[in-house]
Design brief:
The protein is built from 11 helices and 18 strands. The protein is α/β, with parallel strands linked by helices. β15, α9 and β16 form a beta-alpha-beta unit. α4 packs across α5. The longest helix has 13 residues. The N and C termini lie close together (11 Å). Zinc ion binds next to α2.
Length: 341
C-alpha cells in the first residue's frame, strides 16, 4: 500500500512516500481504507525524536483519520464492510480499572495511533474494532478527520476537568490552533464569555466568527491587563494554556480566586517556575490533560455538524504530506490541516 512514513527521527524533512506492507488484522481488529487524516503537533514531537518513548522504525505516523471499513475481523459484529467511520485515536488495554471506569486515557498503557504503533498516514490502517465510530451524516471525510484529538481534548478539558458552568469566563490561548478552534466552540455551547489570543492580526476575525467574544493580540497587549480590562477586574474562571513555557505564568495570573487552569501540549516548552504560595493563596487548581477518554466521542459526535464544526484551514494532497507539516510549523494557519489519502 501507499504510505507516508519515515526511517529516521529527523523531523518532517524525513517524510518519504512509498510502499509499505498491507497491515494484517487480528480477529478483533478492522482494516480501514483511510480517506483523510489530520495533523497534530504530537506528530512533530514523534518525528523529531522528542517524544519520550521508543518509536519503532520505519514508522507510519498520524493519529486522527476517517475512512471506509475494508475488512472486519471474525469476532466483530458492530461494524460492517463499507461503513464510513472516524477512528478514535487512543489505544488502551481495555481491562484495567481505569479502562473499565471509562477513564481509558488514564490507563497505564494508554497511547495514540501513530506513536508506539503505525498510524494513519497511509492508504490502510488496522485499528481495534472498539476504536471505530460511525461518521456523522453531513460531515465530509476531511472534516471528520479533524475532530479526534482536538475535540476530545477540548471537551474533556472544559467539561470534565474544569467543570465549566454556563456563563463563566474562559481564557483560551492560541485561537488559531486546531484545539483552540475546538475549545472556543465547546465553551460557546456553555454560553461562556470567551477571551482568546492570537499572534497574527488576520486571525482575529476568524476567532470571532467561531464564537470568541474578545481577541487579544499577544505581542501587542499585556495579557493580564487585557483580561482585567475585559472582565472589569473579575478575571477569568478558567484558562486553557497549551502554549506552555512562554505563556503559562501569565495564564495563571489571569485567573480569579478559585480559578481552574488546564495544561496540555506545551508547544513552546514544558518547564516553568510557579509560585506555590500564589496557587494556594488564590485557591487555584491546575489540571493536566492528555487527550480525553473514548466516551468523549459518544458525547460530542452527534453535535456535528450543526452545533460544532471542524475548522479546516487547508486540505493537502497525499503527495504533499511534507508541505502540510511545514505549514503546521509555520504557525500561519487557522484550524486543522488535513491530508487527503
Ligand atoms: Zn487499561
Amino acid at each position: 500500500m501507499k504510505a507516508l512514513y519515515y526511517n529516521e527521527l529527523k523531523g518532517c524533512t524525513g517524510i518519504k512516500i512509498g510502499e509499505r506492507p498491507m497491515p494484517e488484522i487480528n480477529e478483533n481488529e478492522v482494516l480501514v481504507r483511510i480517506k483523510a487524516f489530520s495533523l497534530n503537533h504530537l506528530d512533530i514531537w514523534v518525528m523529531n525524536g522528542t517524544y519520550p518513548a521508543h518509536i519503532p522504525l520505519p514508522h507510519i505516523f498520524g493519529s486522527d483519520a476517517s475512512g471506509i471499513v475494508e475488512k472486519v475481523g471474525k469476532l466483530i459484529q458492530h461494524i460492517n464492510l463499507g461503513d464510513e467511520v472516524i477512528i478514535f485515536p487512543g489505544v488502551s488495554c481495555g481491562h484495567c480499572m481505569q479502562c473499565v471506569k471509562g477513564h481509558d486515557n488514564e490507563c497505564n498503557s494508554f497511547s495514540l495511533l501513530g506513536v508506539l504503533c503505525d498510524g494513519v498516514s497511509a492508504e490502510y490502517a488496522k485499528v481495534p474494532a472498539t476504536s471505530l465510530f460511525k461518521k456523522p451524516e453531513g460531515l465530509s471525510f476531511e472534516e471528520a478527520a479533524g475532530i479526534g484529538i482536538t475535540y476530545s481534548t477540548a471537551w474533556h478539558s472544559l467539561v470534565a476537568r474544569a467543570g465549566i458552568r454556563p456563563g463563566e469566563t474562559v481564557l483560551i490561548q492560541a485561537a488559531g490552533s486546531g484545539v483552540g478552534t475546538a475549545l472556543i466552540q465547546v465553551a460557546k455551547l456553555y454560553s461562556a464569555v470567551i477571551i482568546t489570543t492570537v499572534g497574527d492580526e488576520w486571525k482575529t476575525a476568524q476567532a470571532k466568527a467561531i464564537g470568541a467574544d474578545f481577541v487579544i493580540h499577544h505581542s501587542k497587549e499585556n495579557l493580564v491587563e487585557a483580561v482585567k480590562r475585559i472582565t472589569k477586574g473579575e478575571l477569568a474562571d478558567i484558562v486553557v494554556d497549551h502554549v506552555g513555557a512562554t505563556t503559562f505564568n501569565r495564564s495563571l495570573s489571569s485567573l480569579r480566586r478559585g480559578g481552574r487552569a488546564i495544561t496540555f501540549g506545551a508547544t513552546t516548552g514544558d518547564e516553568v517556575s510557579v509560585s506555590l504560595r500564589y496557587l494556594f493563596g488564590k485557591n487555584i487548581a491546575i489540571h493536566g490533560v492528555y487527550m480525553g477518554p473514548k466516551s468523549t466521542f459518544h458525547e460530542y459526535l452527534s453535535l456535528f455538524p450543526h452545533k460544532l464544526k471542524t475548522v479546516v484551514d487547508s486540505v493537502f494532497e497525499f503527495e504533499d504530506g511534507q508541505k502540510a507539516y511545514e505549514k503546521l510549523l509555520s504557525r500561519q494557519f487557522f484550524g486543522k490541516i488535513i491530508v487527503k489519502v
